[in-house]
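Consider the following assembly input.
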Amino acid sequence: SYELTQPPSVSVSPGQTARITCSGDALPKQDTYWYQQKPGQAPVLVIYKDSGRPSGIPERFSGSSSGTRVTLTISGVQAEDEADYYCQAADSSGTYYVFGSGTKVTVL
Amino acid sequence: QVQLQESGPGLVKPSETLSLKCSISGDSLRGSYWSWVRQAPGRGLEWIGYLSSYGSSNFDVSVRSRATITGDTSKSQVSLTLSSVTAADTAVYYCARHADGYNFSPLDYWGQGILVTVAS
């Protein structure tokens, strides 16, 4: 089955930049979305179509893509950004939706 | 403002059928696609399947033989049934709306989730 690979964890100091990667063979063909999930809460969409930002999401959240890898960047990390982050995309055949394994962002 | 609310039993016995409902307000059932997503304790998100605005459905291969998703426009509800459950089906189950009305658009509104435990 298709998989999206993320690093298990990323640690960053307040004010610094966090970069979370998501790798998958189908990513050059498929739009990728990013979700933030805080403990006990439902996920929240933070990036759509690789780099779009929904209304209400702070500008410090941005996305980019290059080949089979997409990246979520959080610039000027704040304590409130500590959460799990998941990428999501369809597989290469456009049949199944897949979530990445998730990355825990810790603000030191 | 779109709001989603999951409901159903919090405890299901092994080998029985899990049945959940998602009540929708602020949108039309036939105006969007609707997905079910689950999250086992301490684990990541897992997409289960979706109901299209046309009434068709699609499922992840891991649950395809056991899952059904249907819609009731009169009640504005989307339902998930999962048969022959095991402890591995213990999870928080979320319903979510697809933002742009097609199958692989992002999930922009989510319910609060409901914990379902499979145990005897």
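Chain A touches chain B at residues 1, 30-31, 33, 35, 37, 42-45, 48-49, 54, 84, 86, 88-90, 94-102 (CB under 8 Å). Ask yourself how this observation constrains the way the partners meet.
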